[in-house]
Amino acid sequence: MTDVQPLRRSLPRIPDRFAAFGAVLLAVVVLAALLAPWLAPYPLDEPRPLERLLPPSGAHWFGTDQVGRDVLTRILYGGRTSLTIAVAVLGVSAAVGVTLGVVAGYAGGWVRDVIMRVTDVFLAFPALLLSLALAVVLQPSVNTVILAIAVTWWPWYTRLAASVAASIATRPYVDAARCLGVPAPLIIVRHVLPNSLTPVLVQLSLDAGGVILTSAALSYLGLGAQEPTAEWGLMVQQGQTLFTTNWWVVTFPGLAILVTAFAFNVLGEGLRNALDPRRAVK
Amino acid sequence: MLAYLARRLGQALLVVAGVVVLTFAVMRLVPGDPAVAFAGPKATPEQLAEARARFGLDDPLPVQLLTYARDLVTGDWGTSLRTRQPVRDDLYLAFPASLELVGAALLVAIALGVPLGVLAARHKMRLPDFGVRLGSMLAVSVPVFWLALALQTVFASNLGWFPIAGEYDTSLDTTSPLTLWTNITVVDALITGNWPIFTSTLEHLVLPALVVAAYPTGVIAQMTRAALIEESGQDHARLERALGFGETSILTRFALRPALSPVLSLIALVFAYAIVNGFLVEAVFNWPGLGRYAAESIRSLDTPAIAGVTLLVALVYVLANLVVDVLQGFVDPRTRSR
């Protein structure tokens, strides 16, 4: 049997391995952060005034900063800060957002209208903007960043969960449960919630990159993590005046943000294509 | 269509009311007494009481909220504690500069993103597609402030191809002063034929606009690709294929127009995001826009100014969404029922 030859020769097909690629990249980032105390070549926060601003070398792969701290060490520990913020923000937003969304989607009617109008108001404030306002009100710290971003992030999950829950609420098994007299809260917890979670998980992966970028931006503006916390955005801010003369002080923390956000985005994109057959290209 | 317009407008007004309440709440959370901030630390008790009465700080909170809303509607956005100017006048100077930056960035993003999306869809699952997808994911993952610093260092400081910071060469103000119409420098220079300032602004605009454009370019390319692939699987595409049209002309002649409808709704969202992202870029390139104004206000804990910026950006977002929804209601009547 011979294949039908296409009329025009086209470029070779490449299999879609985005999810796997993203997962591997993310695993490297997470492991590097988790194992920071063992991987780091130097102790955290040990300024050596005689070794200020050394360029990358065998002893200091990523060089040293303006007070003589090893940049690689601070980047490894900085991963802990960024990933902690991402997990906390997404955990809080998803818990609040999905709960409200599932209730809105299942209940419908005026309950849905009220919840949706409230999310509209919060969505009108871009995350970074409301975070700016809140970060001014509260004392700048890692916890402030978590709170500020979570306040602006939950409505997205409410919207998503509401639309999924609304379609699940019309399924026959939900009707059956209702006819058997199962109370609404139990239907929501037992049937609607578990079946609404898949798209939320994909969205969480896609959003983690955005949270990391926003938290780094807040720290860059001086409204987030404070010295001596190892945080990538803060490292860029502290080194920015040295960029022309000591490029490594700014370049490597920025690359760390880029790689982490990229890993989450690639994983999310891959998961979305794998789980949503309509989006996958055959 | 009229009923749809009315309902959509009502929704938008509700959101605006919510935005005002939320802004008010955030402002009231600020630690410290606004009267002290205005009158200064050395103010006498009489001066404090006067400031208190002037801002209505003795009234109950709901009354303050209503007064605040009434002032906003009548155009009184409060007085900046830092510049001592009405916040509205400050915003009237700063916002056009941000609009100029974001407008230029979105033009770049559409001009690059749509063709890249077409290219990816045309060669889907092949090398160009993977290049565009990976490239657009990098573009949405890059921290803007870092990209701004990198481009500024390489192309302005080291190579000297572009100016380092600012909106235009201010020494031109003496040789060829600019007449202000819209406060958008590049537009004013163009309509008054002020070529030295026009070219200087364009030169200053290149680097910051490219940085702000990175995120929207990536998003638009991804969205165009997805919409085109969906569209080219529709029945009309099969008919066109049967009639002998090539894949490229099916995509560009028939599939692109319906595919651009979801891309359009995306642009409203990206627009507001780009303004706030622009804040960081403005900080690096010292662009005299909202971002710099916000940064300076934050540093001096200037609550009325911060509230003004927050409110303005939220209003722009609501308005952009409204415009896009109405446009889509015209282009695609199916969306009206939502």
UniProtKB/TrEMBL annotation, chain A:
Instruction: Tell me one GO biological process term.
Output: transmembrane transport
Q: How does it sit in the membrane?
A: Multi-pass membrane protein
Subcellular location, principal: membrane
- The reply to whether Transport figures as a keyword in the UniProt entry is yes
Instruction: Give start and end of each ABC transmembrane type-1 domain.
Output: 79-268
Q: Which UniProt keywords apply?
A: Cell membrane, Membrane, Transmembrane, Transmembrane helix, Transport
Taxon lineage: Bacteria, Bacillati, Actinomycetota, Actinomycetes, Streptosporangiales
Q: Which organism is it from?
A: [Actinomadura] parvosata subsp. kistnae
Q: Per its UniProt entry, which superkingdom is the organism in?
A: Bacteria
Q: What is the official name of this protein in its record?
A: D-ala-D-ala transporter subunit
> Which CDD domains does the record match to this protein?
TM_PBP2 (cd06261)
Q: Which cellular component appears as one GO term in the record?
A: plasma membrane
TrEMBL record, chain B:
**Where located?**
Cell membrane
Q: Name one GO molecular function term.
A: dipeptide transmembrane transporter activity
How the protein sits in the membrane? Multi-pass membrane protein
The organism's superkingdom is given as: Bacteria
UniProt KW keywords: Cell membrane, Membrane, Transmembrane, Transmembrane helix, Transport
Please give the start and end residues of each transmembrane region.
12-30, 101-122, 134-155, 205-228, 263-285, 305-331
Domain called ABC transmembrane type-1: residue spans:
95-328
Q: Which PROSITE patterns match?
A: ABC_TM1 (PS50928)
Q: Which GO terms describe its cellular component?
A: plasma membrane
Q: Could you say which protein family the record assigns here?
A: Belongs to the binding-protein-dependent transport system permease family.
**Which PANTHER family does the record associate with it?**
DIPEPTIDE TRANSPORT SYSTEM PERMEASE PROTEIN DPPB-RELATED (PTHR43163:SF6)
Q: What is this protein called?
A: Peptide ABC transporter permease
